[in-house]
């Protein structure tokens, strides 16, 4: 992999972390006046339409192969629909700070699972050390007090942990089994995800649509659909086969850091010494994991 390609991958990784880092705050704005399922349905529909338009613009199309559609379905459900619903429901009762810590389960589970099923991603001492430092960095970032409510709302917290496990399984699945073009996979998976959540919304009954939308909540859904779903999926499916599951998973540690930086630069939130210390610890931790993981072969997706 050339230095230019590596630089592009790092830049895209940071952009993706920024998009996902801002999503927790947007979800909080949305659930204040919208049903969680409606939020997920809205963001998935917007994201699916956006990516499909990009697919058509690029002159590509979805496959007609049943096995390929199975991969669309698995990636769409594990990587979007199921975790989106779980996180959105969980954030009704779980603070975003604790949610950030609980999402740290994702990279840990990804590294362990990848080391088990992927021959080119080994669990080294350097990687394990990096994971420990990363968890410490997230705890420092959000403050140890966030752990005080651990266990208070078991269902909400379990929901977020399950979402993290879905992300882990999906990242390893995409690296291990998916050999389709990134744009096609992004489009197919989001379309399946959007269709499935719209079906759930429909069959839940009309009473679930009794909502009080505001301009702020609608804006949050649009942002989540365009950036945290549409653009994020395009970047995600591009990066996973190029940098590997272990390296990709470390983005979950960078997400709360990017969230804090976004709050500082755009929302006039305070950036304390604790935030800077956490940033240093997490950057060091991610460096350990990235340098300790064997580089991915970077195979291009083959057409079928």
TrEMBL record:
<feature type="transmembrane region" description="Helical">
    <location>
        <begin position="127"/>
        <end position="148"/>
    </location>
</feature>
<feature type="domain" description="EamA">
    <location>
        <begin position="11"/>
        <end position="142"/>
    </location>
</feature>
<feature type="transmembrane region" description="Helical">
    <location>
        <begin position="7"/>
        <end position="31"/>
    </location>
</feature>
<dbReference type="InterPro" id="IPR037185">
    <property type="entry name" value="EmrE-like"/>
</dbReference>
<feature type="transmembrane region" description="Helical">
    <location>
        <begin position="273"/>
        <end position="290"/>
    </location>
</feature>
<feature type="transmembrane region" description="Helical">
    <location>
        <begin position="154"/>
        <end position="173"/>
    </location>
</feature>
<keyword id="KW-1133">Transmembrane helix</keyword>
<dbReference type="InterPro" id="IPR000620">
    <property type="entry name" value="EamA_dom"/>
</dbReference>
<dbReference type="InterPro" id="IPR050638">
    <property type="entry name" value="AA-Vitamin_Transporters"/>
</dbReference>
<feature type="transmembrane region" description="Helical">
    <location>
        <begin position="185"/>
        <end position="204"/>
    </location>
</feature>
<dbReference type="Pfam" id="PF00892">
    <property type="entry name" value="EamA"/>
</dbReference>
<keyword id="KW-0472">Membrane</keyword>
<feature type="transmembrane region" description="Helical">
    <location>
        <begin position="37"/>
        <end position="57"/>
    </location>
</feature>
<feature type="transmembrane region" description="Helical">
    <location>
        <begin position="216"/>
        <end position="239"/>
    </location>
</feature>
<feature type="transmembrane region" description="Helical">
    <location>
        <begin position="69"/>
        <end position="90"/>
    </location>
</feature>
<feature type="transmembrane region" description="Helical">
    <location>
        <begin position="96"/>
        <end position="115"/>
    </location>
</feature>
<keyword id="KW-0812">Transmembrane</keyword>
<feature type="transmembrane region" description="Helical">
    <location>
        <begin position="251"/>
        <end position="267"/>
    </location>
</feature>
<feature type="domain" description="EamA">
    <location>
        <begin position="155"/>
        <end position="290"/>
    </location>
</feature>
<protein>
    <submittedName>
        <fullName>DMT family transporter</fullName>
    </submittedName>
</protein>
